Amino acid sequence: MSSTTRTQSRGAIVLFVAPFLVMFALFFVAPIGYAIVESLFAVKSSGLGFGPPEEVFVFFSNYVTALTSSSFLESLGRLVLFSLIEVPLMVVTAVGLALLVDSAHARFGKAFRVIAFAPYAVPGVIAAILWGFLYVPSTSPILQVLGGVGIDISPLSSDTVLFAIANIALWTFAGYNMYILLASLSSIPRELFEAAKLDGAGEWQITWQIKVPLLRPSIILVTVFTIIGTLQLFAEPLVLRPLTTAISSDFTPNLAAYNQTFAQGNPNLAAAMAVIVALIGFAFSFGFLRFVNRKENRAW
Amino acid sequence: MSTRHSILGRVAVVGVASVGLAVALAGCSTGDTGSEGPVEITFQSWVPNIDQAVDAFNESQDDIHVTLETITAGPDGGYAKMLSAVEAGNPADVAQVGYTDLPDFLVAGALEDITSYVSDSEDLFTPWQWQSGVFDGKVYAVPQASGPLVQFYRSDIFEEAGVAYPTTWDEYYEAAKAIRATGSDRYITAFAFNQAPWMVGLAQQGGAKWFDTAGDSWQVDIDGQDTLNVFAFWQKLIDEDLVKVEADFSSEWNADLQNGNIATWISGSWADAILRGTAPDTAGKWSVGAVPQWTAGENASATWGGGSASAVLKGSKHPKEAAEFALYLNSNPDSVSILTSIGAGWPAISDISEIASLQDDPTVFDFYGGQNIWEVAAASDAAVDNSWRFPPLWSTLTSSLTDNVKSAIDSGTSLTDAVAQTQSDMVDAMTQKGISVE
Predict the structure, then answer these.
(1) Would you place residue A5 in the very low, low, confident or very high pLDDT band (cuts 50, 70, 90)?
(2) Complex ipTM
(3) Confidence band, pLDDT 50/70/90 cuts, at residue B15
(4) For chain B, what is the HEC assignment?
């Protein structure tokens, strides 16, 4: 390759990559940088407060406020609890669905794929509104029928509200995750199954010994997506909040940040909260990846 | 410590000023002939159809021409837009601002003192509504409309239960028991744990005065005895299963209004339209009465979340003309008639005899069995305590109160503890903002 073509190709690379880099810098890096800067300031008034307020640099004071606020710490704890419920539930369901649809005995496989995927096309807020109707006794046909036979359930009570939200998230995303796993399943060479059958393996053995181990990278991907998704829990509790006493305005860290910005008028503290959530998401995702990718002694 | 305010502010000014220049240049071409033509002012509002009132003002005289700029409702982003325009030095002249939000605008230094232009007209307005725009003796806004509290009730259900309309809260408690006995799903009302303005209104009606100023400091008295009494009363109703703990404006609550599971609703006078829209099949069964009293024979009232005013924004080039428009819009009988007919709320002026739709309104009155419900609203409006003050950080107050009440109900702790917690939350929030609290 001559030096001119190399320069030309370098020019082409810059040309093709530039739109991405510009957008990435403008809409990803810049807002993060802005949030970090904002989190180091605070707005102060004085006296009756009637006069222009002043924005002052306060170092990590907003972080201290967030991390010493019992309600914010509770919301973090609640989020961890929610992840513990949601992540295993989601991964097991998505893998189960994918294996069922992919199995040789599956009937109506194509129709089922579409049906399972359909909820993903429903916007999260709409999904939460729909489920909100189903969770309140006076508007829910399901709860009314159950109530009629003496089973009184209130999904939005404080004992069950996390499961109620987990159910909405599961309903929305299980089909989507199933698709990721199905794509991976369909790329497994069919010869492997035939060879296994010739060696006398049954469906169960093929599933456990061939399909699941080969799905490993996709399962890890789905798990990381789900961890990140659960940490961003926002729309469902926001929509369900008016319906129940069990959801406060700082139920999750994201909701707390939203509340600080739009109700409490303290975007600086909200920025600090957002940075904390981002750091936790970073730690969880990379911690999980490190855990499953250890060189020796792999998890499975 | 360093200030960064000025740098960001300057960048914003440059950006907005160039937009403003373009607008000004465009304005020139539409026949603005300097001192000879009318003074041009802009008015920002989100009240649907308020253009009718603006047009009427423009037609009424030749000296001032108002351009309406329809914006997003204040809490949904309209206020943020106004405040950033003030900071950039290019605000609208007149803006729609809620009574509860005026203090926050003052905190942001965003309001023009219009005392010298409008103070002569104080007598035209209901005292408490006028006072909502007065701070430290200076007038910052002309009141437009509000929602004085009244009680909507199903007279047929009261008849069925065999109880008279409760004029005191003691009678209300007895009525609650009687109505509860008429059906396993039926309650006298919903305890709307989600609705801070409603709870604040009940406390105000109970004689509480949460905020006041003393010199350069705020006095905060959210957990005073009057408030505790009010919340202890509702605690008793909840504990004895005499009210339904339910969010208002929820689908469940709508259903309960329609099927008569909820027999009363204490709300702002504007709630009549909501009731007619939500439960049209119950037409003719509703009536409206005054809110029950804590002391028999008294006449204490309050409002649902204050009301709405026209304020002149800091930086307006024509504060005098802006104030003149604000005054006309909200006090001229023809203008107020238009505002009332488009559903702006209960008018802020005290003499409503010239407002035709408040004298006779068959579509509304028929729903209430022919009752002139506006007489009740007028009496309620006149009885609101005019020393009540809304504080800065109103939205902090409402979210804190709602959260604390929810958590009390959820965990079975007392509502009076929730009120005490709200007091400490609010004092903390104000102090943290640098606002002085006594």
Answers:
(1) low
(2) 0.70
(3) very low
(4) CCECHHHHHHHHHHHHHHHHHHHHHHHHHCCCCHHHCCEEEEEEECCCCCHHHHHHHHHHCCCEEEEEEECCCHHHCHHHHHHHHHHCCCCCCEEEEECCCHHHHHHCCCECCCHHHHHHHHHHECHHHHHCCEECCEECEEEEEEEEEEEEEEHHHHHHHCCCCCCEHHHHHHHHHHHHCCCCCCECCEECCCCHHHHHHHHHHCCCCCEEEECCEEEECCCCHHHHHHHHHHHHHHHCCCCEECCCCCHHHHHHHHCCCECEEEEECCHHHHHHHHCHHHCCCEEEECCCECCCCCCCECEEEEEEEEEEECCCCCHHHHHHHHHHHHHCHHHHHHHHHCCCCEECECCCCCCHHHHCCHHHHHHCCCCCHHHHHHHHHHCECCCCCCCCCHHHHHHHHHHHHHHHHHHCCCHHHHHHHHHHHHHHHHHHCCCCEC
CB contact under 8 A, A45 and B2: no
Q: Give the distance from residue B92's alpha carbon to the nearest chain A alpha carbon, in angstroms.
A: 18
Q: Which CATH class is domain B147-304+363-432?
A: alpha beta
Residues of A in contact with B260 (CB under 8 A): none
Distances (CA, A) of A226 to A2, A86, A252, B124: 48, 8, 16, 61
Higher pLDDT, A258 or B37: A258
Instruction: Give pLDDT tens digits for B118-175.
Output: 999 999 999 999 999 998 889 999 999 999 999 999 999 999 999 999 999 999 999 9
Residues B249 and A243: their CA atoms lie apart, in Å, by: 10
CATH class as words, domain A66-292: mainly alpha
Q: Which of A41, A45, A262 sits opposite B4 (nearest CB)?
A: A41
The reply to whether residue A48 touches residue B213, judged by beta carbons under 8 angstroms, is: yes
Fold category of B31-146+306-359 in CATH: D-Maltodextrin-Binding Protein; domain 2 (3.40.190)
C-beta of residue B249 within 8 angstroms of C-beta of residue B261: no
The pLDDT tens digits of the residues spanning B208-251 come to 999 988 888 899 999 999 999 999 999 999 999 999 999 998 88
CB neighbour class for A103 (10 Å; exposed up to 12, middle 13-18, buried from 19): middle
Domain spans, chain A: 66-292
CB contact under 8 A, A242 and B247: yes
Question: What are A71-84's pLDDT values in tens digits?
Answer: 899 999 999 999 99
| Beta-bridge partner residues of B289 | B151
* Parts of chain B belonging to CATH 3.40.190.10: 31-146+306-359, 147-304+363-432
Count of CB pairs separated by less than 8 Å, A with B: 117
Q: What is the helix (H) or strand (E) element at residue A57, kind and residue range?
A: strand A54-57
Most A CBs within 10 A among B2, B250, B314, hence the mutation to make, goes to: B250
